[in-house]
Design brief:
The complex is a heterodimer. By secondary structure, chain A is of the alpha/beta class. Chain A contains 14 helices and 20 strands. Helix content of chain A is about 30%, strand content about 15%. The chains are: A alpha/beta, B mainly alpha.
Chain lengths: ~475, ~900
């Protein structure tokens, strides 16, 4: 936002006007040249959503096996299609049209098709808006992830969560604005680049909260000090810093740094509390699947996500281990592995938010970096183990919660489920829509870099997909 | 293909007659556009119901310009998603857009009759060349001529290959090139994958046919390049930063007692005008610490502190500055700054293992050596931009260190993320992105220009037309040819000194012998062999930028920056607005006989390093100033244009720039004059009136109090702990990811190396560096930011790394000092903060030390009640003292 350049003078006068200015200010962070911080900021227009929980299904969930049934695949099973062929990464492994091994049924009032791989999802379709006509630009994980996160297929640009933190700040200054709950089994492709702030100040970067052990890296001292030791050390540091500061009046940077150490101490408590799911009832734990080894891990993250948005965290992003949606082989079993792990927890979170009155202020976003092709992929001689290759030209994502018109089915792919053809939604449209729900205008959310007004949607045309809004 | 017919009408007509309005476009217009653009009330007075009406257009002029897709508003509105507007009818699909494009390419015929007429427009040879270049030349071009076919020149196209002439003018059907494309033989699928090329679009093939049908007209000589329209006016060039720096006279000041050199006259004159002056001179030790951190990135050692305290000579401080400028650590510090500008990283940023670059460090070493030898700036720039074109190098194997350095210097333009080692990430868009990133590195770092926006459209603020962007980009095109691409792996150059080759051979010989022995064994153990192979050192190579030689491919102005929308050809050149009076123009020529190199980059370096260049000296002087004073004279160091921040002291900037050139472009002299000014020697204490009248310190009414950057902070920890391994140069120190995912430098037998020598991976930066704003290169970093965030406190207080170093430091102090608690604490203080503690500080430390010593035995008993612990507790207590000092504000900030 161009208004973010609150001047140093302004900052200084606020400090100077109070005796213990620094300690009183919400100094999660400050930048030397402008007051880049996480204080809650005014959105551009009345927001529908206060928070976002993004189920980032990295790997590329298969639309034709989950949300977008294509009978033509069965009718023409095995037929080679040259047009699809050009999208594959390994032409030798490109087979003919592959019918879905899953059975589809229509569900809810809206009659949305959901396959039997997602039985829980099927029960809440009337709360969800499906976009069946998403399309990307690249069939490779890395560029496609960069595109989905940051709007360009190249690395080192700020991600959507970082833009949101920049634009809106946080309502709980003891917690970061943008929290990432990654899978303890491993980071997604592109690693920590998936939540980088790049040229935005680092305070807007996603903070990884770990779901096992201490929640934030270095949140607890490594060589565990006893409480009296921790307190004695803090006391000494305060005494030294205070002597240092008294000799250097009117140095807001120094005041800010001392405040940041105090905040760090508070954050240790706040984050530990936010992630402490032992405070939850047995019924809740059961609903999220914490008692089942298959759903326990993702369920825990879903539950933590709820506790974080309850505490005012702006943007929570959940990742899933490695590449479980990247079903290049053994389509049925490998896809079912992914759906089994996630279906119940995702839906439990949706229902829980409704029950707690948070569904109206929280936006849920589900999707991967691309979808999959309608043809089979198998090395010659391994046709029985066939899977599907990456399909960036048409795939499904869904949105639910704040500001979303439940039961919507928007857009369509072609007869094969290969390309989005009707009401196509670009990644930039997708980003613009999420920002819009948060009260942000994608054209106006800019950051000045070398004299250029940078934005998430860059110079690309971006349209808010009003058709899915309530 | 039966199935496909109902899928999409566009696929069905792929082989049919040219697209015409009545059959193909009319239905589309009716469904998607005619709702608003029809009849008397048509929006924008545009009626889309007939080809004729579309050609006539509306308020914005003709909606379609036959055969000129790039100039057809209708297409632009559709492809940019502006039309149809939401929530109106659905946007056009990619196939439908292609249909419209082909219709325009075909001349926008009204119906089949019109379409069947011989095309009035015949594309010119440039249009055809652009198609061949993007689709065919990888196999039929400079590096290889498969089937004996070279499609680069008219003569070679006519001559054809083993199967006969490439085409028959006037007869598309009889032309081999058309036949092969139509039959689907060319380009071959498998090869397309291998070379990361997409097949030609239907409209491109149509164009090729039309060109042959029209007799394959040749370009007339002299028609080769469209002449640049004079969009840059003389008035545009009058802007201050586009004019050569002028030698200015230092003003007179009222209070000359504070003047130590001419810099002070410029600064004091402005301060006095506001009723201000400098802050008092900083005390001796603060000044010493500032100078050390500024020039070497590390605080002084206790011995250096003592020596300085005892030096009563009047020029003791100047001597320190001179000594530091001679220190090998100076090049490491200032080399690091330059590496920021260049966007240095040891990985490509893509793929497994992040694509580690095994030889990038040679460029880092070149930079450090260049600073340590005070290489004159023009030579420094020329080597980095065009080291390979400065003289022969190809046959000099093995080579001298100077030659290795000259080639390694070109790593400057090899820094940006490059995904193209994998062909599936090596398509034309990605290649163009690399070229664009390198242009950004070049212009933002040494030219002070932000011109990235001109990639897609004329610059909004500065007179940089889009054409100038592509002229500049064309300078790099003979080295980064997007139409004949070389991935990073194919660019490595096996060049090194004899010593280095010998050292590697000596290291590898016994291992190779062992491998051979193991491989000859009957029951050979592959694991063992692989383990040995892992110990082999790679043969030395250089990551360099070199010209690909031969006939350069044609460069185009790309419509909206789209790599596939090639419009007018452009010649290599520099931005017109910088043709300042008295400057020699940019003039590429073969750099030396037999070079087989276009000389484009060498010409750029020559042009850029002219003494009266409007930007070169100013931009670098400003960068040096920024790093000494915390703020540039131009506060937007990569943007000296109209949208940048105007200089706070324009006369001083020009005086420094001309002084720099007069002094033989010596950066060392520049440091000296800045650091021996009274301005630099001021205290950072902020007086009330200075705060009131100069709140942002634009006038330099005091020195800024600054946080150490990531590198200085880390290096300072190493220096204080005594674990610094000061070994310079060579392959980087490895990093490791701990179980808790903290990324830390691995260290070695001799300790830990300075941060500039630690592996810099884009996807797994060292956690502490990242927390303290070491930049993610995007693609480079012109000015680091200084954030203050809680995660930094967590990192310093709770991270393993700092604790481990504190432990080592405490252990060393006990070894050296013995049991005297007061003396131990004094030592810890001296090593971390470079001064003796004052009584209240000492008291606080001694009190707390005693308190730690009281609690530690209890804490250790928790781990193991049986183990001896009083000895360990003493060590841990002093560790806690050292750790606290490393966390103190004084340690992390410089006055």
């Amino acid at each position: 936002m161009s208004t973010n350049h609150a001047s140093r003078r302004d900052f200084f006068s606020r400090i100077a006007n109070s005796l213990h200015g620094a300690a009183l200010l919400s100094l999660f962070s400050r930048d030397l040249y402008a007051a880049y911080d996480l204080t809650a900021k005014q959105p551009h227009h009345e927001p529908k959503a206060k928070s976002v929980i993004q189920f980032f299904m990295n790997g590329g969930p298969s639309q034709v096996d989950l949300f977008d049934p294509k009978p033509a695949l069965s009718r023409n099973a095995g037929q080679k299609v040259r047009d699809v062929n050009t999208d594959v990464s390994d032409p030798r492994a490109a087979g003919g049209l592959l019918p879905s091994p899953f059975a589809f049924k229509k569900h809810g009032q809206c009659g949305m098709d959901v396959s039997d791989a997602l039985p829980h999802m099927a029960s809440v379709v009337d709360d969800v808006a499906f976009i069946r006509s998403m399309y990307g630009e690249h069939s490779n994980h890395e560029p496609a992830l960069f595109l989905m996160q940051s709007g360009r297929i190249v690395p080192a640009r700020p991600t959507m969560g970082a833009w949101v933190a920049y634009g809106l700040g946080t309502e709980n200054r003891n917690l970061p604005a943008y929290v990432v709950l990654d899978d303890p089994k491993g980071l997604p492709i592109n690693g920590i680049s998936n939540w980088q702030s790049a040229y935005l100040p680092p305070v807007y970067q996603g903070t990884r909260f770990r779901t096992e052990g201490p929640p934030v890296l270095n949140l607890q001292p490594r060589e565990e000090l006893s409480t009296p030791l921790v307190e004695a050390q803090r006391k000494l540091l305060r005494r030294l810093d205070e002597m240092h500061r008294v000799e250097r009046p009117r140095q807001p940077d120094l005041d800010g740094r001392i405040a940041s150490y105090e905040l760090a101490a508070r954050m240790q408590l706040a984050a530990s509390d936010a992630l402490d799911i032992n405070q939850e009832s047995e019924a809740t734990r059961e609903a999220y699947g914490l008692n089942d080894p298959a759903t326990q891990s993702y369920g825990k993250r879903c539950l933590m996500a709820r506790r974080l948005v309850e505490r005012g965290v702006r943007f929570v992003q959940l990742y899933i281990e490695g590449q479980i949606w990247d079903n290049h082989s053994n389509l049925e079993s490998s896809l079912r592995y992914a759906t089994t792990k996630t279906d119940k927890p995702v839906v439990a979170l949706l229902r829980d938010l409704k029950a707690r009155g948070l569904f109206d202020s929280t936006l849920l976003v589900w999707g991967g970096e691309f979808g999959r092709l309608p043809i089979s992929q198998a090395e010659p001689g391994k046709e029985k183990e066939a899977g599907r290759d990456h399909g960036p030209s048409g795939f499904t994502v869904w949105l639910a919660g704040a500001g979303i018109k439940g039961g919507t089915v928007y857009g369509a792919t072609d007869e094969l489920g290969h390309k989005a053809v009707e009401d196509r939604v670009s990644v930039h449209d997708f980003h613009a829509t999420i920002l819009h729900l948060l009260g942000l205008n994608n054209r106006a959310l800019t950051y000045d870099r070398h004299g250029l007004a940078e934005r998430l949607t860059d110079q690309f045309p971006a349209r808010v997909v009003k058709e899915v809004l309530a | 293909m039966r199935l496909l017919i109902p899928l999409s009408i566009s696929l069905g007509i792929a082989q049919a007659a040219p697209v015409n309005f009545a059959d193909h476009i009319a239905p589309l217009m009716k469904a998607r556009c005619a709702g608003c653009h029809s009849g008397a009330k048509a929006q924008g007075k545009l009626d889309v119901n007939s080809a004729e009406a579309i050609l006539r257009g509306g308020n914005s002029g003709a909606a379609v310009k036959p055969r000129h897709t790039a100039d057809s508003l209708l297409l632009t509105k559709i492809t940019t998603g502006q039309m149809p507007p939401a929530p109106g009818p659905a946007k056009l699909s990619a196939d439908e857009v292609d249909l419209v494009r082909r219709w325009i390419d075909a001349g926008a015929p009204a119906d089949a009759m019109a379409a069947s007429k011989p095309p009035a427009h015949v594309p010119d040879e440039n249009e055809i060349l652009s198609i061949l270049q993007i689709r065919c030349l990888e196999c039929h071009g400079k590096r290889q001529q498969l089937g004996g076919l070279d499609l680069r020149t008219r003569a070679s196209r006519l001559k054809g290959g083993k199967s006969g002439p490439g085409f028959v003018p006037g007869d598309p059907a009889a032309s081999l090139i058309v036949k092969r494309i139509d039959s689907g033989d060319m380009p071959p699928m498998q090869m397309l994958r291998e070379y990361a090329i997409r097949p030609p679009t239907t409209s491109e093939v149509d164009k090729l046919k039309a060109w042959i049908a029209g007799g394959a007209p040749e370009l007339l000589p002299g028609h080769k390049f469209a002449s640049a329209a004079p969009t840059v006016t003389e008035k545009d060039k009058q802007f201050w930063s586009f004019q050569p720096p002028r030698r200015t006279t230092p003003p007179t000041v009222k209070n000359s007692t504070r003047v130590l050199n001419d810099i002070d006259r410029f600064l004091l004159a402005k301060l006095e005008a506001k009723g201000l002056s400098y802050a008092p001179e900083a005390d001796k030790l603060k000044l010493l610490r500032r100078a050390h951190l500024d020039l070497t990135g590390m605080p002084p050692t206790p011995a250096e502190v003592t020596a300085f305290q005892n030096d009563a000579r009047p020029d003791a401080y100047e001597r320190v500055v001179d000594r530091l400028l001679e220190s090998p650590h100076y090049g490491e510090r200032w080399g690091r700054f330059w590496l920021d500008l260049a966007g240095y990283a040891d990985s490509e940023g893509f793929g497994q293992d992040d694509g580690v670059r095994p030889f990038m460090w040679r460029y880092r070493d070149y930079v450090i050596r260049a600073f340590n030898s005070d290489k004159p700036y023009p030579l420094f720039l020329t080597e980095q931009i065009a080291g390979d074109e400065m003289g022969p190098w190809k046959d000099s194997k093995p080579a001298t260190q100077d030659l290795v350095d000259r080639i390694a210097a070109t790593g400057f333009l090899r820094t940006v993320p490059d995904p193209t080692n994998a062909t599936e990430r090596g398509f034309i868009q990605e290649r163009m992105n690399i070229l664009a990133d390198e242009v950004e590195v070049l212009t933002s770092s040494v030219m002070g220009l932000t011109i990235g926006c001109a990639r897609c459209h004329n610059h909004k603020y500065d007179p940089i037309p889009q054409r100038d962007y592509y002229r500049l980009s064309a300078i790099l095109q003979t080295s980064y040819d997007p139409y004949d691409w070389l991935s990073p792996k194919k660019r490595e150059i096996p060049l090194a000194t004899e010593d280095e080759f010998a050292a590697v051979a000596k290291h590898n010989q016994p291992i190779e012998a062992d491998i051979k022995r193991l491989e000859e064994k009957k029951d050979k153990n592959q694991k063992e062999i692989d383990a040995l192979k892992g110990k082999l050192k790679p043969r030395p190579h250089i990551r360099a930028l070199t010209d690909t030689g031969g006939l350069p491919s044609t460069s185009y102005l790309l419509h909206r920056g789209d790599a596939t929308l090639m419009t007018e050809p452009v010649e290599a050149g520099v931005p017109h607005l910088l043709d300042a009076p008295g400057m020699d123009p940019y003039r590429p020529a073969e750099p030396y006989p037999g070079a087989n190199s276009s000389g484009r980059r060498l010409a750029l370096a020559k042009w850029l390093t002219q003494p009266n260049h409007p930007l070169t000296a100013r931009v670098w002087v400003n960068q040096v100033w920024l790093r000494h004073f915390g703020r540039g004279i131009v506060a937007s160091p990569s943007n000296f244009g109209r949208s940048g921040v105007p200089p706070s002291h324009p006369e001083l900037l020009d005086w420094l720039a001309t002084e720099f050139v007069r002094g033989g472009w010596s950066t060392r002299k520049l440091h000296r004059i800045m650091m021996t000014s009274a301005a630099y020697r001021q205290s950072s204490a902020a007086a009330d009136d200075a705060i009131a009248k100069d709140p942002e310190n634009v006038l330099v009414s005091r020195m800024p109090l600054r946080r150490l950057d990531a590198d200085a902070l880390y290096d300072s920890v190493l220096r204080a702990s005594g674990r610094l391994d000061a070994k310079p140069f060579g392959p980087p120190e490895q990093i490791e990811t701990r179980p808790d995912k903290e990324v830390v430098p691995k260290g070695g037998a001799d300790g830990y190396r300075r941060s500039v020598y630690v592996l810099h991976k884009r996807q797994s930066p060292v956690t502490m560096f990242d927390a303290f704003d070491q930049p993610a290169m995007t693609p480079n970093c012109i000015e680091r930011r200084q954030s203050t965030v809680a995660t930094q406190a967590l990192q310093m207080m709770n991270g393993t790394m700092v604790w481990e170093h504190a432990k080592y430091m405490a252990g060393r102090i006990i070894d050296e000092i013995g049991d005297d608690a007061g003396e131990q604490v004094r030592q810890a203080f001296q090593r971390t903060l470079g001064r003796a503690p004052r009584p209240p500080e000492l008291a606080a430390l001694v009190d707390s030390y005693a308190e730690f010593a009281k609690h530690w035995p209890e804490r250790l008993a928790k781990d193991n009640p049986q183990a001896p612990r009083s000895h360990l507790a003493r060590w841990m207590s002093l560790t806690t003292v050292c750790h606290t000092l490393l966390n103190s504000a004084e340690f992390a900030y410089v006055d």
